[in-house]
């Protein structure tokens, strides 16, 4: 696991916040589900932001949820395996509890937290942003198991998928993209397959999965500082994966730097995923009522 640089996370915050405007329909879906199922005395939510980093994603989720669930008690856990990032996160969200641990331990952690008297009766909500691509099959299994065990909801936003488009294009875009994509799969990481894999695993457990796009849309020169960092880091990763690309990369970078001053549009595709185990729990608790037509009229079963 490699921690993200705090200054990079701050640079991407307004760009992520803009992209997450497209994620609001999934927040609304989760809120509608919680509101429909809650008894009046059971409006408590235990939200765990996994891969919380310096807290920017939890701040966004917190604002979006509080605006929509004003009469709910909302408790935050910030989970990350990098203590230095969590130190920043704890300062940004003083009401949250930071926990330094790997995502693979989530089933045990969520069970322990929900059993604690302070969170008694809470619904479980897992959140994350800009995380899934670095996770492994073991991590995703832990995520789905936690939702399955506790009939929870999961909001997994801004996951990289296969696709970014630059205008104007360059003859080496495809080869650089292929090397970057291969780099994303190093050490067993699921890379851009992670959101699909997460939905597959969830559906196999009988949970509902809903998806939606949330691309970054960037344009230089206005987004020059962000694009300079973003493109140079993608290029470094591509050359790290395929050192033979260094000459191609040099030419590509010279052209791109000129365009950062004169005009360049970049679209980076992301996928958002909502996993809903609450509905499955309700179906278990309430026998399905089906209307069937018989020769003598309509009956219910
Ligand atoms: C790209 S950062 C995103 C941070 C934050 N969600 C945001 O949007 O600003 C990914 C974070 O996930 C954490 N992380 C990655 N893999 C992890 C794992 N297996 N267990 C716990 N934390 C992990 C990293 O330490 C890093 O802080």
TrEMBL record:
InterPro entries: SAM-dependent_MTases_sf (IPR029063). It comes from the Bacteria. This is Class I SAM-dependent methyltransferase. It comes from Kocuria salsicia.
